[in-house]
């Protein structure tokens, strides 16, 4: 056969079966080594459980302001990892070390002094602090309690290792208390920062709101259109204009009624065929124009809302004076052109001319008011583009108004939060279960971690050993090898006589299981002897009461 | 391989796997030596503990019982004699006494449970085994037995540490090498080949021992569901199955 032989699964299983004990030896040895390591470096673990609440967030209305400043990873980072990172931060560890005075222990000081001799620019105190921080960092852990909670509160187990139960408990308690205190301080500082931020923003948004409201008002006025003698055209003024038109109509009707009466009186005095002379000249035309202007101005003054003020009264006095002047002018013209008319008839003719002038001036006033009303109506039917612009300005004003309200609320909230933190009425991190004195020196998690690592390493070594024994085995393992080495044909292969003991000495045949047994027995003996020497404290009723306290 | 108090006659069965394989080896050996007329074979190995004595005894027993050949088994390993243990008999008188001229050939050669199998055991353990070997006497012995037996198997010392096997190889018709699977190092086998170079033309073949434990699975009879194994094991537990009505040197009752 040329080329490589095909993979024979039976042959592999056959070899594995023959090398089973050899394969087991590294695995069992590694596991025993892990156990020995656990026993030699026995450590007690004290654990406390804390509940971690959701971080205080700003009001929803402020999200547009602060949303960009938050990274997406921050919100998705698990709480436990955040707590663990916090526990292993240098500042936190320094605080723990200082509280417990770990940098001043004799062992750490001695080792730091030795190291300091070889390092320039680093003091013994700094090295001791670094060493103590390193030791504490390796001895505190944060892990989740149970499955991830759907609520905003997460339970986190904070555990600490120590060489003896009291040390472990002291470290765990110190870590938890420090975490709670630092968290309260941090929350208070955050609340203050939020308050300061809100106060700054309130000023800005008050100005923005004022500007946006002015912009909206100006736009409305510009869109509605023409202004009448500086009178803004709006719904209120439109209503006033309508009222002015109504009163003007009534006044005109009264004048018309009076005209008919005067005309009848004139027929009685001057006869049925009497004619009314034309009483116009430059003076009367000027006075009539003046009267028209005064009437229009009076209407505008009404729209300005100046009713009851001196402006209206003065306007009415001017109208009255103008009417008197106009009547006098008509009276003079009637005297000059009246011919045979009596004095009473002349007065009637002048009065009729005056009433006609007043009708014309009132009509002018009415037309102006109607024009104003029409302008308002046209403004109400303006283009969609203008409507969109108006809506945009309204939205902007409303948004600024909302933000201002939210900022004012946030400022109030931050003051409340700060007050809560000051009075310690509420924490984001609360101790649910304080640390108790551990009873056994074998923490479950450490046990699992070390043993699983040892088993993995053992399995890896086992594979290497088996492959090495198969690949680099120098002994004869096939007829072909024997034939090649002796350069003769093989006569045959004789199996072992089952009833007889296998070839070789007992140890040469059974070195692997014997080694396994020795390793297991030695490990068991060591564990038993050391276990009896270092028994953990037995919990008593007194201890339990003390721990609860 | 052997254990004190237990010999090859104990639980012997023609259905046993090792007997079947031995028969096959004898068949192969007979076919190879049919034309040359070889009758005297020396069984040796590279080092001790490779099962050459057991195989040598097995070849002799099976040749006598299964093939009906008139067979002689000589234990020529004066340093670590084993044949007498394997056959359940005393070592003396044997080859050492014959080489020393203390006993005659007829006295040294003793019968066994099998009528067609005779044995010359090692004899007394010599104080200096290296000096005990007499090449001329041994050559005369071989010359004598060649004409008297159908097959002669000589169990020699290992080749690498001792020189006698090479000297004996000069007088025998063929040399059979025994290696133990999973134990004998390949370089040691090559060394044996180098030592046997002067008698290389007499090397008729190699027998691999302990095949079921170390060779690939297809050398294991259990893979094929060997039919005689259960009966063989049961008989092995029950006791000897080769009997003789009379035994010249033993007090037990044997039946052939």
Quick structural summary:
The complex is a heterodimer of chains A (about 550) and B (about 260). Chain A has helices spanning about 10-20, 20-40, 65, 70-75, 80-85, 90-100, 105-120, 125-135, 165-225, 235-270, 280-305, 310-335, 345-380, 385-425, 445-470, 480-485, 505-510, 510-535, 540-549; strands at about 45-50, 140-145, 155-160, 430-435, 490-495.
How would you characterize the overall build of this protein?
The complex is a heterodimer of chains A (549) and B (256). With 549 residues, chain A is of the alpha+beta class. Among the domains of chain A are: 10-41 and 453-549, no CATH class; 235-394, no CATH class. Helix content of chain A is 70%, strand content 6%. Chain A has 19 helices and five strands. Chain A has a four-stranded antiparallel β-sheet, covered by helices on one side. Chain A is rod-shaped and about 175 Å long. Chain A starts with 8 loop residues before the first helix and ends with a helix. With 256 residues, chain B is α/β, with parallel strands linked by helices. Chain B has one domain: Rossmann fold, CATH 3.40.50.300. Chain B has helices at residues 17-32, 52-65, 83-87, 95-100, 105-108, 129-132, 135-148, 164-169, 186-195, 211-214, 229-238, and strands spanning 40-45, 71-75, 109-111, 117-120, 151-155, 174-180, 203-209. A seven-stranded mixed β-sheet of chain B has the order 3-4-2-5-1-6-7. At the A-B interface, helix 1, helix 16 and strand 5 of A face helix 1, helix 2, strand 6, helix 9 and strand 7 of B.
